[in-house]
Each structure stands twice: as C-alpha cells, then as structure tokens.
Design brief:
Blueprint lengths: L1 E4 L2 E4 L1 H10 L5 H13 L3 H11 L4 H28 L7 H10 L14 H15 L1 H18 L8 H22 L26 E5 L9 H10 L4 E4 L6 H15 L2 E6 L1 H14 L3 E5 L5 H6 L4 H10 L2 E11 L9 E5 L2 E5 L1 H15 L1 H15 L3 E5 L2 E12 L2 E2 L7 E2 L7 E7 L5 H11 L8 E6 L1 E8 L3 E4 L2 E4 L4 E14 L10
Parallel strand pairs: 3-4, 3-5, 5-6
Antiparallel strand pairs: 1-2, 7-8, 7-19, 9-11, 9-17, 10-11, 10-16, 11-14, 12-13, 14-15, 16-19, 17-18
Helix pairs in contact: 3-4, 4-5, 4-6, 4-8, 6-7, 6-8, 10-11, 14-15, 15-16
Length: 511
C-alpha cells in the first residue's frame, strides 16, 4: 500500500517489509529474513506452531493446537484437490491427497481460481485456535498474520486485496467446518449439585491423604512435589512405586482419612481416579481429584484444571456430588460369586477400547478426528463383531458404549458432559448386522453424519442388561480393559454416590 505525499508516494510499512524480503540485506539480518521466508513457504510451519502451542501446557492449549492444525489440513485438502487441478497441474491421486491433507504437506499454492492463498492457512489456524481458546487465539493472531504477509510478499497487485479477503473467508470457513466433526467444548464445568453433608474444609491440607501415581502420565518430579507441599503443606502424600498395590494404598489412605475426619486424594490418570472413586464411595469419604494423567477426562468435566484449583477447593471445603456408573455380573452356576465394577466416565465392549487407544496414539500428530478415522479403519479391518443380547434383544454389534451421564457430541467419539448427576446412562451401539455396515460406518464418520446413520443406535436409560453370546468379552471401564470370565452384566447408576472437591467459582452453565 502506498500513501500519497507532497513529494510523490511514500512506501507504507507493508511495502518496506516486502521490499526487505525481495532484496534482503547482507549479514545475519538478511540470513534471518531468508530463513523465515523459506519456513513460511512450507505448510509444515503450522505443525511447528501447533507443537509450540500444545507444549505451553494445559488442556485448552492442546485442544486449540489440534483444532488449528485440523483447520489448516482442510485448507490444504482444498488446495490439493481443487486448486491445483484447476490450474492445469497434475494432482496426486486419492491416498496421496488424503495423506498430504492429514499431515499438512501441501506445496506452496500457485495461482488458481480458488482463494487458497497463504492467508487462508493463516486465517484457518488462528480461527481454529480461537474457537477452542480465545486467549490463545489472540496470542497466535500476530504470528499468523505476519506469516501470511511474508508468504504473500510476491503476489501480484491486481486483485490482491480481493484474494486476501477470500482467503480469510476460506480459512474461517475451514475452522468452522471442524465443528461438524469435533464440537467445541464449553469452558464451564459440568453441572452438579452440592452434597447433603458439607465436605470438610482442610486448612493447609491437614486430614488429606493423597495417593500419587506417576505412571499415569504425571511428570512427578521434585518441582511437582514442592508445588503440592507449598499448596497443602500438611497433607499426607504417598507416591505409588513399581511393585506397589495401588488398591491397597488407596484403602490404607481412605481408612486414615476416615479416622482423621478428612478426605482421600488421588493424582493420576482416569484409571487411577476410577480406583480412587470406588474406594471413596465404599468408605463414604470425600475425594479430591488432582489432574495428573495424560488426558484427565474426568478432572476436565469436573472443572479441576490445575493443582491450584483442587487445593483451593480443599482449603475452602467446596464440593459437589456426582453419579457413579456400576457394572454388576450376577452369580452364575459354578462361579464363586458376582462381581461389581464402578466407572466414572465410560463402560465399553467390543472394538471401542482398541479404537480409543489407536486414536490416542495418532491424535497428537494429526488431530483427533483424522486419528479417529484412521484408527477406525484399522480396527474394523482386523476386528470381529460380537453377538450379544441387549435388554432381551439379539444384536450383532461392533461396539457398545455406555457413558456415566449424557455425553456430547453425538456419535461414538464422546468428548464431554454437561451434567454429572443426571441419573442416566448414555448408551450407543454400532450395528454390525446391516448391509455394508463397515463401509457405511466409515462414510458416516467422514461426512460427520454418524448421529443420523442407521448403523448407530442411541438411548438414554437408567438400567441395561447385557449378555455376550459370541466373541471375546473385553470390557473396558474408564479406558482400562478387563479380560472378563463372565458374559452377563447389568449396567446401572449409583445416584450422587460420591462427593468431589471443586472450586465454587466454576459456573454451572446448564442451570
């Protein structure tokens, strides 16, 4: 852009930047500009940006980075499949285009009829990040805008402003399109009622017996220990060591908590939290859940995002109640007795646990929904359906999912809950008995229409009876797979069975 002046035209700041890149100065400054220009010419710069953002820590930062990366992948797919063929250049065929879209390896867009300019990628990344976290979106906006300017420095002036505006529209549209497959999680915690009996306020953590499981994914170090000691200096902390019995440690901690009139605490992943919740419910003692795993699904729904959140609630005695899911196997002839397993998040059977594990291995690299699609294709290719009886009806299914409370979004990739004490089981089953069930399932996932597909059956119930007739009954509770010897289960709920510490300033957006 040029500004008129008395002595002719005066170059604006953008023109001076473009001129600097067109003819970079010698020395270190010129080398830095040339390096930045080369980096800006590759879509992999967004992979680096997402990695840097996700590495800043925090669940919201990681989700924002993945959504930003997924938004750029959509722009890259548009560029690869439409813009380049329209410009008369050969494009890679099917699998190559999909791989490039998932990894973001798209070559620098050339001239073409579609506005897939560098501005589209920049707008897609910034908007995708902002959808998940406005705070992080504001932080990456200058970087994205600056990079788009560097990459577009050589664009022709004719129609340039129009193409920039169109690029913004394409980028924002790509970011919004990700919401079809991966809805934005609300910032507010799930709604829950206060306990009938107030949780004890433990000043300085006195009376709290905390069990930490470093194997869950928490980076237990001297800094972590010092942080907990500083927050709750009088808490009794036990660190799980290889060879220890986690359930026995939790039992001992709960007995001491009851004697002290205090609370049980757990720091670890969802499997550790599951064991802690079962112990707390059995001893009727309040539970403090510290986020210490890789994904921390329950802690996120509860609203405990950091160690500081939990410590603040413990000191103030702020708590809510939550339902607990229960899977009971009745006593059968020739067996020593029935079993009972509690779950805070989910119960599943079939290929669901394999799908979750496959997705979690890939989603840090390519995003949640591409990872889900790739993982689904893998498990469907190698897995086998189950013959089951559900509430008296014979079915052939690929998987059955039961959530402790109603989950969002629809489909079989639930992400979050809006209420922790609704008294319902959220049941979803993928049918294997319909014609072309595998193909229809994959197409429904790719198009974001699984919630309306005939292969998916959903229901919200208070009780469900399940019997496995044929196939291996691999039951999973909160992501932990159990090779069961029993084949019959009854799923139901224990309403408001557990008291959980949570800061009172977590607004209940469903009320």
């Amino acid at each position: 852009m040029k500004r008129p002046g008395r002595l002719g035209t005066i170059p604006g700041p953008g023109d001076r930047v473009a001129a600097a890149f067109a003819a970079p100065p010698a020395g270190r400054a010129g080398a830095a500009l040339r390096l930045l220009g080369r980096a800006a010419g590759s879509e992999t710069v967004w992979l680096a940006a997402a990695a840097a953002l996700g590495g800043t820590g925090g669940r919201s930062a990681r989700r924002a980075a993945l959504r930003g990366l997924g938004s750029v992948a959509i722009v890259a797919a548009v560029s690869r499949t439409l813009a380049k063929p329209a410009a008369g250049r050969p494009a890679r065929a099917g699998a190559g285009r999909v791989l490039d879209a998932l990894t973001g390896r798209a070559a620098r867009p050339g001239p073409g009829p579609l506005p897939t300019s560098p501005m589209a990628s920049a707008a897609a990344f910034a908007c995708g990040v902002a959808l998940e976290s406005p705070r992080h979106g504001l932080a990456v906006l200058p970087f994205a805008a600056g990079l788009a300017r560097v990459r577009g420095r050589g664009a022709p002036s004719h129609g340039h402003r129009g193409r920039l505006a169109a690029g913004v529209v394409v980028g924002v549209g790509a970011a919004l399109l990700t919401c079809r497959w991966w809805p934005v999680k609300p910032e507010a915690a799930a709604a829950a009622a206060p306990p009938r009996r107030p949780a004890p306020a433990l000043a300085e953590g006195k009376g709290l017996h905390l069990v930490v499981n470093p194997a869950s994914g928490v980076a237990w170090s001297k800094d972590t220990a010092e942080a907990l000691r500083a927050l709750l200096p009088q808490a009794a902390i036990t660190v799980f060591e290889p060879g220890d019995d986690l359930v026995a440690l939790l039992e001992e901690a709960a007995v001491r908590a009851v004697a002290d009139g205090g609370a049980l605490g757990v720091c670890g992943g969802d499997g550790t939290v599951n064991a802690g919740s079962a112990t707390a419910a059995r001893h009727r003692v309040p539970l403090a859940v510290f986020p210490g795993g890789t994904f921390n699904h329950f802690a996120a729904d509860l609203g405990n995002q950091s160690l500081e959140d939990v410590a603040r609630a413990i000191r103030a005695g702020e708590a809510v109640t939550a339902d607990v899911g229960r899977a009971s196997s009745p006593q059968e002839p020739g067996t020593p007795g029935g079993t009972e397993q509690l779950f805070l998040n989910t119960f599943s059977i079939g290929v669901y646990s394999e799908l979750v594990h496959a997705r979690e291995r890939l989603e840090q690299r390519i995003g949640k929904w591409p990872a889900l699609t790739v993982g689904l294709a893998r498990v469907l290719a190698t897995g086998s359906p189950l013959r089951v009886v559900i509430n008296g009806r014979r079915r052939s299914i690929w998987l059955l999912f039961a959530g402790n409370g109603i989950y969002h979004p629809a489909g079989f990739a639930p992400t979050y809950r809006t209420q922790l004490d609704d008294g319902l089981l959220d049941v979803r089953a993928v049918d294997a008995g319909t014609p072309l069930a595998r193909t229809r399932l994959l197409l429904a996932v790719l198009t974001g229409t699984l919630h309306s597909s005939r292969v998916l059956t959903t229901a919200q119930v208070r009780r469900l009876e399940l019997e496995v007739l044929q196939g291996e009954p691999h039951f999973a509770y909160d992501g932990e797979v159990t090779d069961a010897t029993y084949r019959r289960l009854v799923l139901d709920k224990l309403p408001k069975a557990i008291t959980l510490y949570r800061p009172a300033d977590q607004e209940q957006w469903l009320r």
